[in-house]
Amino acid sequence: MIAHRLFHTVLLCSLAAAGQGVAKDLGTHGPLFEVAEPSLLDTIKARLKDMEAAGELDAMRQEMQDTTRAYVSRPRPVQGLGKAEDYAIWEVDMSITLTEDLADHQGQIFAHAGTVVNPMAYSRFNKRIVLLDGDDPDQVSFALSDGDELDTLLVLVNGDPLGLMREHGRRFYFDQDAVLVKRFGVQNVPAVVQRADPFMQVEEIALGKGGEIAQ
After folding, report:
1. Quick one: pLDDT at residue 11?
2. What is the pLDDT of residues 17-40, one digit of tens each?
3. What is 4-58 written as a DSSP string?
4. Tens of pLDDT along 132-167?
5. Are strands 82-83 and 188-189 parallel, antiparallel or unpaired?
6. Overall pTM surpassing 0.85 (yes/no)
7. pLDDT for residue 201 is more than 90
8. Which has the least CB within 10 A, 19, 29, 96, 196?
9. How far, in Å, CA of 53 to CA of 157, rounded?
10. Following DSSP, what letter does each residue of the chain receive, concatenated?
11. In this prediction, what percent of the chain has a pLDDT beyond 90?
12. Angle at which helices 161-168 and 137-144 pack, to 10 degrees?
């Protein structure tokens, strides 16, 4: 027992001595120099000056402008779509099921989780949506043959919306990220989406020459 206590005493003394050794000031040996690092901002400025002198900066600006202009004039086409060869029609239920209670600004719950809500009951949107390939003259003719900007939205899945707008004097939109195509389950174009309460109705329409509806 005594030997055991003696061992712990020696161990604690050794650790204390070691700790004092770590904390001891050993003084200064050799000359000291201030740490000098170049400013990150100065480095960037210098790099930009070098790029400007070499003409790289102008080339980068031009590339960015060309990329932006190309994206705006001809966005990436929606993938996986075909050209309608047969007539097809179906309905899409726009209803959603709430995943949590909805409350007003006073905390009063007006819709409980699990409630099925059809936005068609609250929306006044009543325009036709024509989804089309802007590089197909027949589809463009079909899209322009009925309605105007007050009642019809022309939405491209491929093509040049700005060029078509200049050519026909109508606004052409683009289905970015295939939001409409996915929501309405469109597989072929042209397709017409319109209100048919309490649903939205989708038609894929086969065309003949000149954009006439195939019989």
Report:
1. 47
2. 545 544 555 555 556 656 556 677
3. HHHHHHHHHHHHHHHHHHHH------S---------HHHHHHHHHHHHHHTTHHH
4. 999 999 999 999 999 999 999 999 999 999 999 999
5. parallel
6. no
7. yes
8. 29
9. 43
10. -HHHHHHHHHHHHHHHHHHHHHH------S---------HHHHHHHHHHHHHHTTHHHHHHHHHHHHHHHHHHSPPPPTT-EE--S-EEEEE---EE-SS-EE-TTS-EEE-TT-EE-GGGT-----EEEEEETT-HHHHHHHHSS--TTTEEEEEEES-HHHHHHHHSS-EEE-GGGHHHHHHT--EESEEEEEETTEEEEEE--B-GGGPBP-
11. 61
12. 50
Rounded Cα distance, 82 and 181, in Å: 12
In whole angstroms, what is the distance from residue 193 CA to residue 88 CA? Answer: 12
Rounded alpha-carbon distances, angstroms, from residue 119 to 90, 122, 201: 19, 5, 15
Tokens representing 184?
A: 């309405």
- CATH of segment(s) 82-94+121-211: 3.40.30
What phi, psi does 96 have (nearest 5°)? -130, 155
- CA–CA distance, 98 with 111 (Å, rounded to integer): 8
Q: Hey, how many other C-beta atoms are within 10 angstroms of the C-beta on 183?
A: 14
Place of tokens 């072929």: 188
CA atoms within a 13 Å half-sphere pointing along the CA-CB vector of 88: 14
The token pair at 14 is 């050794």
C-alpha distances (whole Å) from 28 to each of 24, 25, 31 are 12, 9, 8
